[in-house]
Amino acid sequence: MAKQPGRKVKLPAKATPESLEKAAYRYLERYATSRANLRRMLELRVQRSVYAHATDKNEGLAAVETVMTKLDRLNLLDDRSYAENRALSLLRRGASHQAIRAALFAKGVEEDLIRRAIEHLRQDWSDPELAAALAYVKKRRIGPFRVTEARRTNRERDLAALARRGFDYDLAQKVIDAEDVEDLEKSAAS
Predict the structure, then answer these.
(1) Predicted pLDDT at 189
(2) Which of 90, 118, 146, 154 is geometrically suited to a Cys-Cys bond with 95, CB 3.0 to 4.6 A?
(3) Are 49 and 55 in contact, with CB atoms under 8 Å apart?
């Protein structure tokens, strides 16, 4: 991106132990996050500082470790809780187990915690995958939520939409071809 004339380029802040700690607290105030994601954010700040201010990368990374240790000691980072809450949020928005797994993995959550978070969803739903598929079709107004005349012509398109979201074919077919959505919702919830 070219610099516009008369406009100052804002340099990133210098990565000091104090600035990294303040950045971590600000980030935690705004976002729920995993340990790995917060570490990644702080290391990126160090990298930008090295590039912009020629600070020592090793000192910056040592400061990141100090901040992470302090946050752990204060119990401000809980990957299990983060994974469970994020999985629940994604499920309510219509994400399949596969999509939830990918999202949590991208945030640096360990595989064991991802598996537990997905199992934790069964406390609220007997079939969380069905609940997610129903949430997705309802949000997109596809399948049983389409106008009756358009359901048949858009069936393949609706099945493909669910497949792209990570739902298996049998489940997609069950949801898209459903005549009574209330029965499906009951079987997902009970």
Answers:
(1) 86
(2) 90
(3) yes
* Rounded Cα–Cα distance for residues 80 and 112 (Å): 10
What tokens appear for 104 in the block?
């949590």
CA distance 163 to 75: 39
Q: Which pLDDT belongs to residue 32?
A: 95
> 12 — alpha (psi -120 to 50), left (phi > 0) or beta?
beta
Give the H or E element holding residue 52: helix 35-53
Task: Give the rounded distance of the alpha carbon of 76 from its chain centre.
Answer: 19
pLDDT at position 180 is 86
Domain limits, the chain: 17-73, 79-123, 128-189
Phi-psi region of 87 (alpha: psi -120 to 50; beta: other; left: phi over 0): alpha
Q: What residues of the chain score a pLDDT lower than 50?
A: none
H or E element in which residue 166 lies: none
Tell the residue number behind the tokens 């069936």, with chain if given. Answer: 155
Which pLDDT score, from 0 to 100, does residue 190 have? 63
Is-above-0.85 flag for pTM?
yes
Nearest to 76 by CA among 19, 33, 105: 33
